[in-house]
Design brief:
This protein is α+β, with helices and mostly antiparallel strands. The protein has 2 domains: about 110 residues, 2-Layer Sandwich (D-amino Acid Aminotransferase, Chain A, domain 1); about 160 residues, D-amino Acid Aminotransferase, subunit A, domain 2 (D-amino Acid Aminotransferase, Chain A, domain 2, Alpha-Beta Barrel), CATH 3.20.10.10. The protein is about 30% helix and about 25% strand. The strands form 2 sheets. Strands 6, 7, 8, 9, 10, 11, 12, 13 and 14 form a 9-stranded mixed β-sheet that branches. A hairpin with a 2-residue loop joins strand 9 and strand 10. Helix 2 crosses helix 3. The longest helix is centred in the first third of the chain and has 15 residues.
């Protein structure tokens, strides 16, 4: 916290922390995987750069450089002696003046690292998950900037996630305000149709995911065609395959959407091919992608 290692139980903030009241924070979710060469952080530089860019959108001046943030993340993992973990760096406006203007408040930075398994479950990775198209829409860019990974944005995601769970599904799929597919509450989404990989384009509001970008590169290297465009809701139902991507979700197949079975109702061959390569990469088993790994 703010440049110092702090015991877990002492990692506290003031009750009048600005971000607690107004959502004025930006953050990242990063994973570190166990490899034969020890723990390796997946695409650390890209995650830190996105956090810095999120802070720029919100006029938040971070008190640390990208290199300092990266070094602190590595230090936190080492201090906790973790072989594999999830990492949560967050920058937020702290205690100072109350009110909507945060600019006079200190910008505080914390980094937590802890063990965390697959977000949508090990069975979900193998067999796929059941999804509901949410009644809640993805943030319109005229309301809040969807390119920023900001704490306030995720209240929208919470509503979609809870609605899906309470109606018996594993996860939600969120549409844009124009009615086309955007993303999951905490994941990007891909569909496969006639051997092509299709994902909603940036104007529909999805966060530009690091795992999403990785999948695009993996698919390109496999010679799989990638298309970014508007995706209609009913195209989800007619897809040959569908899957989520995200740091937490990794690569999780989708087997059902709104009661419609997707493809053959299980992890499809293209999904499995990309998923298998992804896990080879993050565990340091493919030297061609070693540039994506930062060894702790």
């Amino acid at each position: 916290m703010d440049g110092k290692l702090v015991p877990w139980d002492d990692a506290k903030v003031h009750v009048l922390t600005h971000a607690l009241h107004y959502g004025t924070g930006v953050f990242e979710g990063i994973r570190c995987y166990e490899t034969q060469r020890g723990p390796a952080i997946f695409r650390l530089a890209d995650h830190v750069r996105r956090m810095v860019e999120s802070s720029k959108i919100y006029l938040m001046k971070l008190p640390y450089s990208e290199q300092q943030l990266s070094d602190a993340i590595i230090q936190t993992i080492r201090a906790n002696k973790l072989k594999e973990c999830y990492i949560r760096p967050i920058a937020y406006y702290g205690y100072g003046e109350m009110g909507l203007n945060p600019l006079k408040n200190p910008v505080e930075v914390a980094i937590a690292a802890y063990p965390w398994g697959t977000y949508l479950g090990e069975e979900g990775l193998r067999k796929g998950v059941r999804c509901k198209v949410s009644s809640w829409c993805r943030l319109d860019p005229r309301v809040l900037p969807p390119l920023a990974k900001a704490t306030a944005n995720y209240l929208n995601s919470v509503l979609a996630k809870v609605e899906a769970l309470q109606t018996g599904y594993d996860e939600a799929i969120v549409l844009s305000t124009s009615g086309t597919v955007s993303e999951g509450p905490g994941e990007n989404i891909f569909i496969v149709k006639n051997g092509e990989l299709i994902t909603p384009w940036i104007a529909t509001g999805p966060l530009q995911g690091i795992t999403m970008a990785s999948v695009k590169q993996i698919a390109k290297d496999f010679g799989i065609s990638i298309i970014e465009r508007e995706v209609l809701r009913e195209e989800l139902f007619l897809a040959d395959e569908a899957f989520f991507t995200g740091t937490a979700a990794e690569i999780t197949p989708i087997r059902e959407i709104d009661g419609r079975i997707i493809g053959e109702g299980r992890r499809g061959p293209i999904t499995e091919k990309i998923q298998s390569k992804f896990f080879e990469i993050v565990r340091g088993k493919d030297p061609a992608y070693e540039k994506w790994l930062t060894f702790v």
